[in-house]
C-alpha cells in the first residue's frame, strides 16, 4: 500500500484500489441542510449565496484552473460537503473524467449519474462536456434557493419538477415565488440578488448546451451587477400528462423513454 499527501488530502493506492481521504466535514453535505424542514432554517440568504458562489468557483477550478480539465458528471447536493464554516467542497469524483487541453466533449454508450441533475445531451445521447456540469450546477442553484429537490412534485402546477416550475414562474414575472419560505418575505433578503441567481440558474439549465454560459461567465455574473441575458426554454420540464388521481411518482405517468439508456441514481459515498 502506498500513501501520499496531495495538497492536504491523503491518497491511498493499493494494487487496483485507489482511495481519497478527505478532510473531516463536520456539517456533512448540502442536502442534509437544504432538504430538511428544520435545518434549512439555519441557512439565511447570505449563507446560501456564499454556497452558490463557492460551488461555482469550485466547478470553475475543475474546468479551467486545475492542471487537467475535469468534468465531474455527478454534481448534486449530496456531493457538496460543508466544513465548519459552511464553506462548500465538491466531493465524489468517482464518475469524473479528465479532458485534454483541446478536448471539447466526449461520448459514452453508458451514461450514469443522478436523475434530475443530468443534462439532456448526456442522458439521451451520452455526450458530456463542461456544459453538462453547468446544467447540474443550475439545478443545484435552484434547489438551494427554493429548498426543494428538482424532482419535487408541485401541486397545481403543470410541471413535475423544479426547473419547469421555476420557468413558468419566471415567464409570469413571479420568479420569487420559488424562494424558500424559511427565508421570510421579500423584505428579508435582497430581491434583486435572488432574482439574478434564479436567472443564472435558468441560464444554466437551458435545453441547448451551446446556450448555457461557461462557469467563468457564471462566476462573473454572480459577482457583478451586470445585465444577465434572458434564458431560453429549459430542458426536462416534464409536463404533467397524468390523471389527478394517479400517483405522480409512478412510472405510468412518466413520459416514454426515447432510447435504451439507463440512468442510475447514485448516492454519495
TrEMBL record:
<feature type="domain" description="Protein kinase">
    <location>
        <begin position="1"/>
        <end position="236"/>
    </location>
</feature>
<dbReference type="InterPro" id="IPR000719">
    <property type="entry name" value="Prot_kinase_dom"/>
</dbReference>
<keyword id="KW-0067">ATP-binding</keyword>
<dbReference type="GO" id="GO:0005524">
    <property type="term" value="F:ATP binding"/>
</dbReference>
<keyword id="KW-0723">Serine/threonine-protein kinase</keyword>
<dbReference type="InterPro" id="IPR001245">
    <property type="entry name" value="Ser-Thr/Tyr_kinase_cat_dom"/>
</dbReference>
<dbReference type="GO" id="GO:0006955">
    <property type="term" value="P:immune response"/>
</dbReference>
<feature type="region of interest" description="Disordered">
    <location>
        <begin position="245"/>
        <end position="269"/>
    </location>
</feature>
<protein>
    <recommendedName>
        <fullName>non-specific serine/threonine protein kinase</fullName>
        <ecNumber>2.7.11.1</ecNumber>
    </recommendedName>
</protein>
<dbReference type="Pfam" id="PF07714">
    <property type="entry name" value="PK_Tyr_Ser-Thr"/>
</dbReference>
<keyword id="KW-0547">Nucleotide-binding</keyword>
<keyword id="KW-0732">Signal</keyword>
<dbReference type="InterPro" id="IPR008271">
    <property type="entry name" value="Ser/Thr_kinase_AS"/>
</dbReference>
<keyword id="KW-0808">Transferase</keyword>
<keyword id="KW-0418">Kinase</keyword>
<dbReference type="GO" id="GO:0005886">
    <property type="term" value="C:plasma membrane"/>
</dbReference>
<keyword id="KW-1015">Disulfide bond</keyword>
<keyword id="KW-0325">Glycoprotein</keyword>
<feature type="compositionally biased region" description="Polar residues">
    <location>
        <begin position="246"/>
        <end position="262"/>
    </location>
</feature>
<dbReference type="InterPro" id="IPR011009">
    <property type="entry name" value="Kinase-like_dom_sf"/>
</dbReference>
<dbReference type="GO" id="GO:0007165">
    <property type="term" value="P:signal transduction"/>
</dbReference>
<dbReference type="GO" id="GO:0004674">
    <property type="term" value="F:protein serine/threonine kinase activity"/>
</dbReference>
Amino acid at each position: 500500500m502506498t500513501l501520499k499527501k496531495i495538497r492536504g488530502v491523503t491518497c491511498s493506492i493499493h494494487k487496483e484500489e485507489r482511495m481519497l481521504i478527505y478532510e473531516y466535514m463536520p456539517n456533512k453535505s448540502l442536502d442534509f441542510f437544504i432538504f430538511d424542514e428544520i435545518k434549512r432554517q439555519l441557512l439565511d440568504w447570505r449563507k446560501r449565496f456564499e454556497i452558490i458562489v463557492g460551488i461555482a468557483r469550485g466547478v470553475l477550478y475543475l474546468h479551467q484552473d486545475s492542471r487537467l480539465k475535469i468534468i465531474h458528471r455527478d454534481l448534486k447536493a449530496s456531493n457538496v460537503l460543508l466544513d465548519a464554516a459552511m464553506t462548500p467542497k465538491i466531493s465524489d469524483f468517482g464518475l469524473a473524467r479528465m479532458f485534454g487541453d483541446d478536448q471539447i466533449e466526449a461520448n459514452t454508450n453508458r451514461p450514469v449519474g443522478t436523475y434530475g441533475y443530468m443534462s439532456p445531451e448526456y442522458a439521451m445521447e451520452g455526450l458530456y462536456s463542461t456544459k453538462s456540469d453547468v446544467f447540474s450546477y443550475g439545478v443545484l442553484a435552484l434547489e438551494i434557493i427554493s429548498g426543494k429537490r428538482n424532482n419535487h412534485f408541485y401541486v397545481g402546477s403543470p410541471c413535475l419538477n423544479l426547473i419547469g416550475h421555476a420557468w413558468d414562474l419566471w415567464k409570469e414575472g413571479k420568479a420569487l415565488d420559488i424562494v424558500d419560505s424559511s427565508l421570510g418575505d421579500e423584505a428579508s433578503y435582497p430581491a434583486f440578488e435572488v432574482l439574478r441567481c434564479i436567472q443564472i440558474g435558468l441560464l444554466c439549465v437551458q435545453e441547448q448546451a451551446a446556450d448555457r454560459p461557461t462557469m467563468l461567465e457564471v462566476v462573473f455574473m454572480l459577482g457583478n451587477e451586470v445585465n444577465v441575458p434572458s434564458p431560453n426554454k429549459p430542458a426536462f420540464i416534464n409536463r404533467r400528462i397524468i390523471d389527478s388521481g394517479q400517483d405522480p411518482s409512478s412510472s405510468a405517468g412518466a413520459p416514454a423513454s426515447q432510447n435504451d439508456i439507463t440512468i442510475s441514481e447514485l448516492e454519495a459515498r
